[in-house]
Amino acid sequence: MKYAVMAAALLSLSTPALASGSHAGGHGEMAVGEPGKKAKVTQTIAVSMRETEDGKMIFTPASFNVRKGQTVLFKIRNEGETDHEFVLDEETKVMEHKALMEKFPEMEHDDPNAIRLAPGKSGEIVWKFTNDGTFKIACLVPGHFDAGMHGDVVVAKK
User: Fold this and answer.
1) CATH code of the domain covering residue 116
2) In a domain? residue 12
3) pLDDT digits (tens, 9 = 90+) for 130-139
4) What positions does the domain Blue (type 1) copper occupy (predicted)?
5) What pTM does this model have?
6) How many independent structural domains does the chain possess?
7) Is there a domain that residue 19 lies in?
8) Would residue 145 be called left, alpha or beta, if left means φ above 0 and alpha means ψ between -120 and 50 degrees?
């Protein structure tokens, strides 16, 4: 059994996604929604990511309210002094990714619902929220989530 687990781990390391240090897409249908079209954006939300003097890591703002069916442009800027990520997903998926990132800390996401930014850099995610509910934003760089870098996206029915 122990060798089977080790073999599975080694096999997973030989996949192109992990070998290149990225987490490729392939999520298929996501509960949080789908990539949106910029022409259909009805709301723009500016989000900053940074560390605080007391050692916390934060998103500003850390929570958002949107409507089901809405397409949102997240304009994300890393105002901190270290790399940060913005990952949008349902809480169970965020926690699964967090555990994987703790095992493979150099892994980067190549998903339409996530972006990793170096200090001083900016990026965008265009997202269409197809389901109502509460979802998470998180930075999954090891230690950042635990330092407070997460929040909620509440998607209300139309």
Assistant:
1) 2.60.40.420
2) no
3) 999 999 999 9
4) 51-155
5) 0.80
6) 1
7) no
8) alpha
